[in-house]
């Protein structure tokens, strides 16, 4: 479902005389349906960079990144948007809050975007908000004023609303209490059971051991000259 072949990445520092920093070379990785792969490696090894390339935020210098049959490294912007709507979910640590949109709608939005009937989308949103312990009294309010932890849980609910065939998870259990951490681990297990291919960064070692099938140390993709 996610195929990465011989990918390299350089950063060009335009404000520092155009210095070229090679950060990745020969990155290859394959993630099948129902599989969860953890990216590991020291700080600065390139975990976030690889995730951003898979999501199409950073362009690879060479190689292929194929998600659900779409080569992200070569796709048109509208193809990337369709991929993100239908196939590839990204759960970051932080919610991008849209002012005045109620929490229930924020969570249901990915389902409405793929044409799920409104009643079904809202029911799924409410189920997830309940599981993640967001008080019912908050569901009709915009999450703008929510606490950091509440916004993080709303973001997780939104990220797991639609059954994406492929998912990227950036520290999904960071700073959660035990009960909510357990819920997130169950959501990951449920996603795997329905066949999602998952790539994630997990600093929480116990979480990684429980939900990940394999670990890839991205420092093996650090260019030799770097
Ligand atoms: N936009 C950018 N411009 C220039 N260099 C960058 C950029 N983003 C990342 N880098 C460099 O690429 C390397 C990999 O960074 P990256 O954030 O992917 O590491 P990481 O493994 O995710 O680290 P951490 O665990 O600290 O989050 C680092 O040396 C970083 O300085």
Automatic annotation (TrEMBL):
PROSITE patterns: ABC_TRANSPORTER_1, ABC_TRANSPORTER_2
Family annotation (InterPro entries): AAA+_ATPase (IPR003593), ABC_transporter-like_ATP-bd (IPR003439), ABC_transporter-like_CS (IPR017871), CP_lyase_PhnL (IPR012701), P-loop_NTPase (IPR027417)
Entry-linked SMART domains: AAA (SM00382)
Domain ABC transporter: 2-226
UniProt keyword annotations, A-Z: ATP-binding, Nucleotide-binding
GO MF annotations in UniProt: ATP binding; ATP hydrolysis activity
PANTHER family: ALPHA-D-RIBOSE 1-METHYLPHOSPHONATE 5-TRIPHOSPHATE SYNTHASE SUBUNIT PHNL, LIPOPROTEIN-RELEASING SYSTEM ATP-BINDING PROTEIN LOLD
Similarity section: Belongs to the ABC transporter superfamily.
Protein name: Phosphonate ABC transporter ATP-binding protein
Organism field: Roseovarius atlanticus
Origin organism lineage: Bacteria, Pseudomonadati, Pseudomonadota, Alphaproteobacteria, Rhodobacterales
